[in-house]
Amino acid sequence: MTTENVQDELTIPEAEWNSSMFNLAQQQFLGASKLMGLDENIRNRLLFPQRAQIASFPCRKDKYSEVETVFGYRVQHVLTMGPTKGGIRYHEDVNLGEVSALAMWMTWKCALMHLPFGGAKGGVRINPAEFSRSELQRLTRRYTMEFVNMIGPDKDIPAPDMGTNAQVMAWIMDTYSQQVGYTAPEIVTGKPIVLGGCKGREEATGRGLVYLIQEAALHIGIDLKNATAVIQGFGNVGRNAATFLEQLGVKIIGISDVSCGLYSEKGLALSAIDDHLQKNGTLVGYKDASQISNNELLELECDILAPCALQNQITDQNAPYLKCKMLAEGANGPTSLEADKILWDRGVFVLPDILGNAGGVTVSYFEWVQNTQEFAWTLEVVNERLHHIMVEAFQRTLMRSQRDNVDMRTAALLEGIARVAEAKLLRGVFP
Known about the structure:
seven-stranded mixed sheet, five-stranded mixed sheet, alpha/beta
C-alpha cells in the first residue's frame, strides 16, 4: 500500500463524522441544552447516537460480472423512548455524520409530537438514478440483511426518505419477513397500502406542513385566500404542500426542482406543471413562467416560503434578503444557526423542521399502530388525528416560545429535549 493510500485510509473516520449537518444538529442541541440548564451527564449522552453501524457490501449490477461495493448506514440516536424510528435515504452524499444528524432531529421530532419512538436514520451512499430497478432491489435486500439484527417492529422501524419510496419499503418488508418466517408488515412504514400501508402516508409530510401553515397564518395575521407562496423543491413534500396550499386559495408564484426555478407573478398552474414534468422530467422548458435560479427563488417577495429540498439553503448570506413573512420548513436542516438569528431579528415567523415536517413520522406511527393491531383506519380518521397532533404540538411550541422569549426552533427543541431528558432521569442508569 502506498503512502497516499495509507493517508486516505486514515482520514476516512474523520471524514465520516465531519458533516455540516451533524455539526448543525449538535450546535442546535447544545444551544438549547444550555438555555434549559440540562444535566451535564444527560447532555453528553445525547450529543452522539447510542448505536451506529456502517456496512460495506457488494451490489451485483445487471451485467452479472460487474459488482459494486457500496456503503450503508443505520444510526439509532436514543433507545430510551421506545423502538427507534427513521427513514432510509439513497443519496450520493450520505455519510455517518449526515445520518447521525437526521437521527438526532428525529429524536426531538418524535418527542415533540409525543410519539413513543426514539430517533433513527439509515442510508446508502449511491445515486439511485444510476441504478436500474432490479439493481435497486438487490441492493435493498442486501442492505436489509446487513442490518437485519438491528431493525425490528419492536426495535427499529425504517421508512422512506430521499431516494427511496413505498416499493423499497416493500422489498425490505419481504426480506425481513423471509428471515423471521412470517409476514411482518409492521417492520416498515410508508409501504404500499395493499401490504398494510396507511392511507394518507405518502402525502402526510406536505399535509402536516400545511396544517401548521394554517395555524401560523392565524397567529401572525395572514389571510391565506389572498396569500402568495414559494416552494423550493418539488418532490413528495414540496409538491403535496403546494397542492394543499393551492386548494386553500394560496397563489403559488414560485417553485423549483434540481434543474431550475419557475416564477409567475399571476400564479403557477400546478396541473400544467405536473403534465410538463411527466413529459420532460424536469421544470426546464416550462413556457408559462419565467425560469430563475434557486437562489433567486428564495429571495422572491411572498407571504410563505417553504424550503422542501435539501439542507443548508437559508444561510447568513441570503437570510437578510428573504422577503417572506413565514418560513415553513419541509426539509431537514435547511436553515443555518446564523440565519436563524437574522430571521428572528427581522421578525420572520419560522416553522422549524422538527415541527414542520413531523407529519410524515406521525402518520408512520399511525401505520405502525394499525399493523400491530391488524386494524385499518379510514383516510378521514388518519387526517383528523394528524391535524389534532400537529396543531397541539404547534400550540405547545408557540406557548414555550412566548413564555421563554425564544424563536420557534429553540422552543421546539426545548420541548423535545425536556421530554427525552425526563424519560432518561426516570429510567436511571444501568447497572
